Amino acid sequence: MQGFQVQRKGGWDTHGLPIELGVEKELGITKEDIGKKISVEDYNKKCREVVMRFKDKWDDITQKMGYWVDLNNPYITFENNYIETLWWCLSELYKKGYLYESVSIQPYSPAAGTGLSSHELNQPGTYKDVKDTSATVMFRVIQNSKFKLHNVAADVYLMAWTTTPWTLPSNLGLTAGPNIDYVLVKTFNPYTHLPIDVILAKALINKYFKAEGENGDFDNYTSAVKLMPWKIIAAFKGSDLEGVEYEQLLPCEANTLEKIQEITPGAQPFRVILGDFVTTEDGTGIVHTAPAFGADDYKVGKKNNLGILTLVDKQGKFVDGVGEFSGRYRTGHLK
C-alpha cells in the first residue's frame, strides 16, 4: 500500500560459535589449527555443510506445523547478499552518528577467542556444578573526615566476601546495601592476633564469630586462646558508609590511580558506594566491586564513577604489571 513489500521468508541463522566448535570437534582440530592443518577455505566449506545438514528435516517439520513462510527463497546469513546488507545497515548507522565506542560486560571464552551470546551460554553442557574458593577480605579504612565513627582505638577494616578472588587486583570499590543494618565489631585479627575493629552486616555476625565469644575476655586473649572474643561497639545503616575510603588491597604497577584514570579520566575508586543488589544471604553484606568483571559491578561502578580496570587479557591470563600474577592463567572461571 505504501510501495513496500515485506517478505515472509523462512531463514537460517548460520553464523555462531556452536557451529564452529562442532566442526572443530568433528575434524579433531582447534582454532589454532585453522590455516595450518586445514585451510580457511576448507574450514568455511565444512561449516557451511554442517550448518545446512538438517535443512530438509527443518523444512519438513515447518510444513507439517502449517507455519506459513517462503521456504523456497529463505534468507541464509552466510550468503554475501545478506552479509552486505548488514554492512550497509552499519554504514548508515555510522553516517547518522548512532555508533559510538564504549564498554559492556560480556561472557568471554579465551579458548574460542570471542564473546558469547545468551544462546551460546544455554547450549547443552555449558554449565556444571563445581567447588571453588571463596575469600573473606579485609579492606583497611582510611580514617579521615569521610569516616563518621570517631574515637576508634584500633584499625578499622571493611569485611568483604567474594567467590572470585582472582578479580581482587581489579577491585575499585566496595558496595553496601543502603538499608542494611551494619555493626562495628571489636575483636582480634585471627592471623596477627592484634586488636582490630571490623564492619559487616549485623545479620551475618554469627557466620564469622561464635556466639560464645561475645563480650569475651579481651584483656587475657592470646594466640593460644581458641575462642575469639568480640563485641559490638557501634551500629548504623549502610547509607552511613557511603563515601568511606579505604586503602587499595593489592597495589601494583598495573592498577595505580594514574593507570585507572588513564582509562577512565576523573575516576574516584577505593571508596564505599551503595547498591540495592546487596543482600545478607551470604558473605558479609559488603560486596567486593570490580566493574570490569560483572554486570552489577559495572552498572554501579559507572553510576558512582569508580572507573574500570581489566587486568586479565584475552587468553585468560593476568597482564604485565600485576606482580607475581603476571602471565599466569587465573583459574577455571575462564575456560
Report the strand count: 12
Q: Into which percentage range does the β-strand content fall?
A: 15-25%
* CATH superfamily label of the largest domain: Valyl/Leucyl/Isoleucyl-tRNA synthetase, editing domain
- Structural class computed from helices and strand pairing: alpha/beta
**Major β-sheet profile:** 5 strands, mixed
Strand order of the largest sheet: 5-6-9-8-10
Order of helices and strands: EHHHEHEEHEEEEEEHEEH
Number of domains: 2
CATH architecture classification of the largest domain: Alpha-Beta Complex
User: Number of helix segments?
Assistant: 7
Q: How would you describe the shape?
A: elongated
Q: What is the C-alpha radius of gyration, as a whole number of Å?
A: 27 Å
Give the overall average pLDDT. Answer: 91
- Name the helicity range: 10-25%
Please mark out the parts with pLDDT under 50 across 5 or more consecutive residues, or reply none. none
Please report the distance between the alpha carbons of the first and last residues: 53 Å
